[in-house]
Amino acid sequence: MSTKEIPATELNAEEFIATQVEQISSAVGDGLAINALSGGVDSSAVTMLGHKALGDRLKTYFVDNGIMREGEPQYIADVFAELGVHVQLVDARDKFLDALSGITDPEEKREAVTQTFYKDIFAQLVQDSGAKFLLQGTILTDVDETAAGIKRQHNVFEQIGIDPQEAFGYQILEPLIQLRKDGVRIIAAAVGLPEAIWDRMPFPGPALAARVIGEATRERIALVRHATAITEEELAGVDAFQYMAILHEDRVTGMRDNRREFGNQIELRCWDSVDARIATPTRLPWETLEGLATRLVSEVPGVVSVTYNVATKPPSTMEVV
Ligand code: XMP
Are residues 87 and 194 in the same domain? Predict the structure, then answer.
């Protein structure tokens, strides 16, 4: 099934919002829907569209999967509380981290996160709530990349021939499916989200598991979370599409306090892009990179090497996993 794109330049936000609100209302009728808010611009926009359409009949959950950035669950719950949207936090940290245990293959990692999310956590939430509909923030780029076999995005089912009703017992509504990231930001601003959310950089569904090459153990996730917090702090003022810290699997020889340290390598990536389909590395000032490297090697235990990616997408992808 092909989906007709609405390019950002042709998007009429008010019209789009009215149409989607109407479609959600008529699909759900007087029933219940649920959605998982991740804090990204896509799921945040969907949450607002769903609440406009359904009010309290949309139950919004934030699933803490243990692979989020520092302080994320509470930050997002607070932002939405300000907007009058109640977000229920679900602590599923152990389930996800256990499911990721022992897995090193990138696609198997994505699959472990997907399966835990849909089959385990979400199927249970749907069952407990009695909802027959799940609202989801899938965008066109997710569909393209999955259909092309580049990456299995966690939120694409019908487009690749999996019937969620049959596989998981519920129907999925995807109001943003015709948009790309630039269009979603326009909608997110128009539905009343604060700039800190509509202008937020993308973050992948598999979260920090996508930023760890090899096994995403609790320790390695904690390490990349720490490196991510520093990177996001240092690059906060930079005008880029997305930036990230990646933990490599290979170790390298370093030295600290005159002793050999066989330590970890962090790769930094910072991308200029419009819609994530193609991207080029941002020409960061050398001083910025130097400052970041100094903080990473001194504040994150075990890091002895920091590199900056200078290859474009393609052939790279923005994430490493
Ligand atoms: P790639 O790595 O494919 O990333 O060049 C393109 C954009 O998509 C985000 N991304 C994901 N988002 N689930 C998501 O929700 C995923 O599995 C996933 N993989 C990548 C990535 O952060 C970038 O903005």
Answer: yes
The number of the ligand 1 atom at minimal distance from the alpha carbon of 153 is 17
Number of domains in the chain: 2
Task: Give the Cα separation of 301 and 317 in Å (integer).
Answer: 28
Same domain for 220 and 298? yes
**Confidence (pTM):** 0.86
Q: Are 313 and 278 in contact (CB under 8 A)?
A: yes
Is the CB of residue 319 below 6 angstroms from any atom belonging to ligand 1?
yes
> What are the mean pLDDT values of the chain's consecutive 10-residue runs (321 residues total)?
88 98 97 93 97 96 96 95 96 98 96 89 83 91 78 60 71 94 95 95 92 98 98 96 97 96 98 92 98 98 98 97 91
Query: Could you tell me the two tokens for 116?
Result: 């835990």
Cis peptide before 194 (omega within 30 of 0): no
The span from the CA of 170 to the CA of 222, in Å, is 34
Residues 234 and 122 in one domain: no
Cβ 73 under 6 angstroms from ligand 1: no
Pocket residue to mutate for ligand 1, from 319, 320, 321, most atoms within 8 A of Cβ: 319
Asked whether the beta carbons of 243 and 201 are under 8 A apart, the reply is yes
β-pairing, 252-256 vs 259-272, is: antiparallel
Cα dihedral: 238, 286, 321, 318 (round 10): 50
Closest Cα to residue 95, out of 76, 115, 77, 110?
115
CA distance 188 to 185: 5
Q: Is the CB of 206 under 6 A from ligand 1?
A: yes
Q: Is the CB of 205 under 6 A from ligand 1?
A: yes
192: left (phi over 0), alpha (psi -120 to 50) or beta: left
Count of Cβ atoms closer than 10 Å to residue 196 Cβ: 9
| Ligand 1: centre distance to CA 72 (Å) | 18
